Amino acid sequence: MTADLPENTLSLEIDPIEKIILRSMAEGVITLECTGRIFTINPAALRTLGYVQEQMEGRLFEEVFASEPFNDDFRLFFASMMRDAPQTSNRDVQYKRPDGQVVDLSITAGFLDLDACNPGLQNVVVVFRDVTAFKALERMKRRAVNHLSHELRTPLAVISASLENISADDLPRDRLQRNLERIHRNLKRLVDIQGIVEEMLDPPQFRPESLFLPSTIEPILEKLRSEFSHRRVTVTSRVVPEQTDILDPVVLRIALESLVKNAVEATPDGGEVLVSVDPVLEGILIKVEDRGFGIPLRDQEFIFEGLHHTQATVEYSSKRPYDFNAGGKGLELLRLKTMAEAGYFEISFTSDRCRYIPENTDHCTGDISSCPHIEGPEGCRESGGTIFSVLFRSR
Asked: SMART domains from the entry (predicted)?
């Protein structure tokens, strides 16, 4: 179908109002001449694609995108618009920027059929949005379902197998005891999951009390140390000796238990976790710092989204709480986020993925002494880690 183009489409100049609109758009916009040259590209498109205007404007789209084989789908989408001339087309593709970062794009394009092709005539308009965060959230939700299914299925399977073992008439007493311990441990795991979910649906009331920081914090940490005595991880503390009336002891205990457990499970044997509690201008600041394997950058945005984990589900096993890389339900962090949204405190984190294992598929040995990349705890401390911060504001 031949379209009668408005005069400004035939012009080599863009109307000033059109320029303002293009510059203000959050979506990327590219227009192509019928010759295949890029005629217009707005700032959002340049930011998303990782180019500057001089690298794209006036060049054939094939020349711009042909150098990176990863971007063949993106390039072929443009080519199909020129070749097949559909009136509209939609597609989701992945695109690799010149800096190596991969983003997800949702593309919509329109085509105008021309009687004749002359330079400056624009007949393809491409509009695209960066949907990387949305796609990552979709992937996270799929993994979350797998993970929650695993978290519920695993203790049930262990309990079932242990009960079958117990039913054997000739089971030795020591094996009977081990099976009973497994049943008890996995029942507690199910109860913990239930309790955390109920707590998120109905958070406890925040009831601050007058507390002396060291005598409140240290007993909590001492109890936690006894729970991971099978690990060679040191938890040290630095607590300012001060009285405060802005902390709820129950909420404080939940925050410390969740973050210390998370830190110990991320720290290889021979490593250290530091807990610091300081009065600051805004209130009381608690930091839990581990020098473990860290969180990959692409996972950090969703770490509080609940059930988000930074490994494939198959990497999680039926380990004991506090074991290295035990995995965690992710529910603990979601519980803390729920409390933060209720106004009990503010929570944030910073993390550097261990530079020797940058991908989720890379594995830490779990013991500093057996790591082939570093020498001693100091090398581990310098390679990566995570700091969670919880701020209880003065009221």
From this structure: HisKA, PAS
